[in-house]
Amino acid sequence: MQDIDTTSTQSLIDRYYQEEKAQREKEMTLAALTVRLDANDLAMLNVIARRFRKTRDEVAQEVLSNALVDLFARLDAGERKLLARDADEAARSIADEIAEENGVRNVEIKTGVWANHDRQITKLERKKARQPAATEALSEQ
Description:
Elements: H1 8-27, H2 39-51, H3 56-74, H4 77-101, H5 113-140
Helix pairs in contact: 2-3, 4-5
């Protein structure tokens, strides 16, 4: 709840400080990755980043994150479950390592990210598998 002496406009500054702190902490838990791109790919990355007023790193980070989910979804279901477990187990130690390199302690990370992706993908696969069967049943009537 807002303090009576603080106006709603002033409370924006408090929120901005909190957001800034959260952003700094997030940035301190990210690892650097060097990627080599050809001129065509780099040009498109630059154009898209400029168009949406983002940095190349921001766009590349989101693209890579989405591409990893797409690749993960294409794996065989049994293998996907094993890889999700391995990635989720490794994430904590990797996050701690990155944070330590950046002088951050007690880093908070989401756990079970890849297991959650696996569950969502499995749900979609099951739903998709049921759709042709339902369509076929309707056409037989």
